[in-house]
Amino acid sequence: MTEQRLYVLDTNVLMHDPTALYRFEEHDVYLPMIVLEELDHAKIGLTEVARNTRQVSRFINQMMHEDASLADGLELTQPEGLRLGNARGRLYFQTEPLKDEDPLIANGSFADSQLLRAVRDVARRLPDRRVILVSKDINLRIKAAIYGIPAEDYHNDRALDDLSLLYQGQVHALTDFWERYPQIESWSAGGRTWYRCPRRPGDEWYPNQCLAIQGAGGETGDGSVEALVKIVDETTFAFVIAEDYRTTAHAVWGIQARNREQNFAFNLLLDPEVEFVTLMGTAGTGKTLLTLAAGLAQTLDDKRYREIIMTRAAVPVGEEIGYLPGSEEEKMTPWMGALTDNLEVLTNPEDGSEWARAVTNDLLTSKIKIRAMNFMRGRTFLNRYVIIDETQNLTPKQMKTLITRAGPGTKIVCLGNVEQIDTPYLTETTSGLTFTVDRFKTWQHSGHITLRRGERSRLADFASQNL
Predict the structure, then answer these.
(1) What DSSP designation does 451 have?
(2) What is the pLDDT of residues 230-258, one digit of tens each?
(3) Residue-wise over 135-152: b if at least 16 C-beta within 10 A, else e?
(4) Are 105 and 147 in contact (CB under 8 A)?
């Protein structure tokens, strides 16, 4: 039987995830008075942290109104506490003054010292319980370890235990693929070749998963096949041969795929049945350029979307973009360097004249709108091609807020690199991008691919690999 623990939550855990109160199953949760004080100070404002703080207060208030044990008071030594929803544990509060007067702890910052003293105090009064401090602050966990206080990071916000387990969106099959699946049914439909294979034990296939089958001539030699899995059921999976966008004849707004991953990305970006696409990759892999090229082709040429909307996480996310003169787009311009740099490539007309370039820029300006992420709440996008850049800096809740803006006929593309996270308390395994990739991999209208090869320049590629 698992030992019932008492988890003391730091304020930043609740600010990060207001539902953390309910995430400890059969274990109890303890909130020191300093945590409630910090929540009270942080509740004012329109930031994500302020909203989360107010939600924590609402949760606690709801539990107090629903729990009849309040009639007898809330003493930690009593067995009542507050019911934590469907969790089997209870919620307790600090109801007695601290007795720990350790001068070493008292010399630290007020909030940290109060919290560490509270953990020591409750552990002293409950010697039979294992008391653990939970904090997103790595420095506080270090202090706790120095004082001999058990401390852990908050893990329930992790999509995965290890980033290496993240869905890559691509499967590399060796030349024995056709031997492993001898009972293959093939047919042609819509000018494309389809294959259906029986699933083998241990197979993990997902809709719109990219499949690269190596031929006798190597990965890109004779006999190699690039395909996308389209239909997955309990007994079979079906895939279709991917379109080849490497040739000039099939260039997308003048852009050709330079490697296999980029070709797969174009297949996902240009498929109207794929309404949600995530592209991950380091700097220079072509995420923004491919996405813009596909968006312009479908907006201006195919008339599939009315316009392109581009936004990005301006770190710190959720803060005001200021009161400087200018429109929303003009204020966001400093954050949109990636857009302007890639438009220079896409708006370079064949004749090279200044007049033609100016006309092209005016046309694209009318079809590409830059929007601040701060003002996305409550909006609904109809028949739009929405690009969200730098999504590694968003929390799962912020990703949900943005993706749920999609109305009928809208496609959303999320770009990011989990190796460049700038938001406090977010890691590679807790990023909203990682969370979204993991949750959407089984949906038949979503696709993901990780771009690995840098194509910006040989200098940028070498720097990305060696610095």
Answers:
(1) E
(2) 999 989 999 999 999 998 889 998 889 99
(3) bbbeebbebbeeeebbbe
(4) yes
Looking at residue 422, what is its pLDDT? Answer: 82
Q: Who's near 240: CB < 8 A, 6+ residues apart?
A: 192, 193, 194, 195, 227, 228, 230
- Taking residue 464's Cβ as centre, other Cβ atoms within 10 Å add up to 17
Residue 95 pLDDT: 81
Say which amino acid occupies 387: I
**Residues ≥6 apart with Cβ < 8 Å to 359:** none
Judge whether 268 and 287 are in contact, CB under 8 Å. Answer: no
Identify the CA nearest to 17 among candidates 133, 144, 125, 155.
155
Phi-psi region of 218 (alpha: psi -120 to 50; beta: other; left: phi over 0): left
Q: Which pLDDT score, from 0 to 100, does residue 378 have?
A: 75
**CA angle, corner 214, sides to 210 and 215, nearest 5?**
135
pLDDT tens by residue, 262-305: 999 999 999 999 999 999 998 888 898 999 999 999 998 899 99
Q: Is the separation of the CB atoms in 3 and 89 below 8 Å?
A: no
- Give 3-state DSSP helix, strand, coil % of the chain, rounded to 5: 35, 20, 45
Q: Which residues of the chain have pLDDT under 70?
A: 1-2, 67-80, 99-109, 159, 161, 216-223, 313-341, 344, 347-365, 374-375, 464, 467
What is the distance between the alpha carbons of residues 447 and 170, in angstroms, rounded to a whole number? 10
- Report cis status (omega within 30 of 0) of the bond before 334: no
Task: Transcribe 358-378 into DSSP letters.
Answer: HHHHHHHHHHEEE--GGG-TT
Amino acid at 369: K
Q: How many helices (H) and strands (E) does the chain have?
A: 15, 18
Q: CA 255, CA 348: separation in Å to the nearest integer?
A: 11
Closest residue by Cα to residue 367 from 276, 302, 413? 302
Edge-to-edge strand ranges of the sheet holding 411-416: 368-370, 307-312, 384-389, 411-416, 276-281, 446-451
Q: Is 40 left (phi over 0), alpha (psi -120 to 50) or beta?
A: alpha
- The span from the CA of 292 to the CA of 288, in Å, is 6
Q: How far is CA 383 from the centre of its chain?
A: 23
DSSP state of 242: P
Distance CA 385, CA 163 (A): 29
Q: Are 305 and 385 in contact (CB under 8 A)?
A: yes
| DSSP string for 390-410 | -GGGS-HHHHHHHHTTB-TT-
297: which 2 tokens?
Answer: 């082709």
